[in-house]
Amino acid sequence: MANILWVEDQLHWVDRFQPILEATDFDGEPTRVTVFGFAEAACQHIRSPGAARPDLALLDAHMNGNDSAGFSVSRALRRKWPELPMIYLSEHSGTGIEQQAFETSEARDFIAKHQANIESVLCWRIKAVLRQHALQQRGASDAVIDSGDLRLDTETWEVYWRGHKLMNPGNSRRPLGPTPRKILRYLVEAAPRPLSTAQIADRLDADPERFSYANYRQHIRTLRLAFDHAEGGQGDFIEACKRGEGIVTFGDQGAYCWKPVVR
Amino acid sequence: MANILWVEDQLHWVDRFQPILEATDFDGEPTRVTVFGFAEAACQHIRSPGAARPDLALLDAHMNGNDSAGFSVSRALRRKWPELPMIYLSEHSGTGIEQQAFETSEARDFIAKHQANIESVLCWRIKAVLRQHALQQRGASDAVIDSGDLRLDTETWEVYWRGHKLMNPGNSRRPLGPTPRKILRYLVEAAPRPLSTAQIADRLDADPERFSYANYRQHIRTLRLAFDHAEGGQGDFIEACKRGEGIVTFGDQGAYCWKPVVR
DNA sequence: GGCGGCGGTGAAAAATCTGTGAGTTGATCC
DNA sequence: GGATCAACTCACAGATTTTTCACCGCCGCC
User: A91-95, A176-180, A202-206 — which one is most confidently predicted on average?
Assistant: First the structure.
């Protein structure tokens, strides 16, 4: 289902476009449009932990007399879903607002509300952005990930650290659990970018209400212990993490980050 | 070097835009624009084995009275360089030409020639497409802000000043705290405009009631100390700030401003 | 000269974040 | 039904970051 988040303070545009958007087939599934009339309401919704990830955001930069209300929504979105494509729909094309949208807000497109055949143009451009984004998402999936001394086979999900297979720290005869393995994979894939709790929850396809930071933290602990056991259990890996190598706490938004270990 | 391939049959557009494009810095290197006045000539060039790969193609769909001359160039490009981003620059926005550009020709953008401030719009949009494409190519790599001797990676949040990583001034083994990092980023992004307490509070997504000027001031202090430590801790940076370089107090509404430091 | 506001400073208090250990839950298998 | 195991929760202490507070010097102004 194509899920569109739209922030627009002028109701007549909503009345005009919403039915058209909902009747348009963007990705082979029914389209749902969620509209917010105020930037604050949208931000609040976005920040709430249970918010479902939209596929695309449609923003108006200039709302309720505030030049940058739309940009605050954009920042909230970027924080929660860094990859989310955003399109601006505005009456101020060709102005500094358009420039700001492209240069600091990483807009994918900026559509002038006043133009010929706007309904169609809107749909074409949304479709184009969604297609482009889909293309981008399914790039890069090698079977084996190598990062320093780590070897991660994404087919069999086995993980080797300096030649030793990572085992379950609670019971060294058993392999590492599936969730920690996945988390490790996502961390290594995302390196050197950190992954926040929300991003991990998103990738694990977990219920964002349930997957908490405490949860993430615990898996990180499991992983660190597993690495530590793999290199002898002297606590060296834990120490390395504190120094900023291996699985590093990022210090914001409950995020962790994979940094290759130098020897 | 940003290499742009442009196919355009009306010379006056070339005269008008080419100098601007060539004077615009799209990727930190000089820009070169190669113009073809005829679709056939462009296709022939593209198919020739020695043709250099451009970074972006600018096409006009409707040329020399032929509705689809531009699309033939697009097909030639797609065959030779499947990943090449293409932007249409046309007088026929909102028509079937735009639809075709997006739906069958995988246009990244479609820019109407007749619109306010077209020169700037063209540059913003080209820049946006190039950035998006670069991101896509190297698997969403560095979004780095450069300002003088400062290098700020907005993905990993690492900040380097003259090659030294900015650390927490209170504990030099630890990285700069999240809030100061963000404030620095916003300041540099907003430069040369100052950011008042209220603006920072908005960007930090903080409660404007709680985020006071005293607060902002303290973070600025942390930042200045961090810079100072990074260059040796002689207080030089603090002095520079007083002289009007680096993180400058703006003197109104409790605002601060980032000014690149000249050496 | 006294006054008041602004911005810099240092330290203390408050809030938040993290690591840790232990306890629950729920699913699966015997 | 009971054992087992991974995933999840909870509580708490220690570390770290952020906010608050009090004070100081400077400057313009009456």
Answer: A176-180
> Is the pLDDT assigned to residue B143 strictly greater than 80?
no
Chain A positions in Cβ-Cβ contact with residue B125 (cut-off 8 Å): 102, 110
**CATH 3.40.50.2300 placement within chain B:** 2-137
Residue B163: which residues within 8 A CB-CB, separation 6 or more?
A: none
Helical pair A118-137 and A11-23, crossing angle rounded to 10 deg: 60
How many Å from the CA of A167 to C1' of D7? 16
Q: Is the pLDDT confidence value at A208 over 90?
A: no
CATH of domain A144-259: 1.10.10.10
Considering the domain delimited by A2-137, tell me its CATH architecture. Answer: 3-Layer(aba) Sandwich (3.40)
The alpha carbon dihedral of A42, A44, A45, A46 has a sign of: positive
Q: What is the mean pLDDT of residues B149-154?
A: 82
Q: What is the mean pLDDT of residues B86-94?
A: 85
- Which of B27, B90, B98 is the mutation pick for testing A, counting most A CBs within 10 A? B98
Q: Which residue of A has its CA nearest to B176?
A: A251
φ, ψ of residue A209 in degrees (nearest 5): -70, -35
pTM here is: 0.73
Q: Is B205 an 8 Å CB contact of chain A?
A: yes
Residue intervals of chain B classified under CATH 1.10.10.10 are 144-259
DSSP assignments along B145-183, one per residue? EEETTEEEETTT--EEETTEEPB-TT-TTSBPPHHHHHH
**Helix spans in chain B (H):** 11-23, 39-47, 69-80, 96-103, 118-137, 178-190, 197-204, 213-230, 236-243
Give the closest-approach CA distance of A194 to chain B in angstroms. 7
Virtual torsion, Cα A225, A229, A232, A233, nearest 10 deg: 40
The per-residue pLDDT for range B217-261, each reduced to its tens digit, is: 999 999 999 988 888 777 788 888 888 888 888 877 778 988 887
Of A93, A99, A136, the CB nearest to B115: A93
The contacts of residue B117 (CB under 8 Å, 6+ apart) are A94, A95
Q: Which of residues 164-183 of B touch A (CB under 8 A)?
A: 175, 177-178, 181
The tens digit of pLDDT for each residue in A29-62 reads 788 899 998 888 888 888 776 677 889 999 988 7
Q: Is B93 an 8 Å CB contact of chain A?
A: yes
The DSSP bridge partners found for residue A7 are: A36, A59
Segment B140-148 mean pLDDT: 63
**What tens digit of pLDDT does each residue of B187-219 get?**
888 877 888 888 888 888 877 788 888 899 999
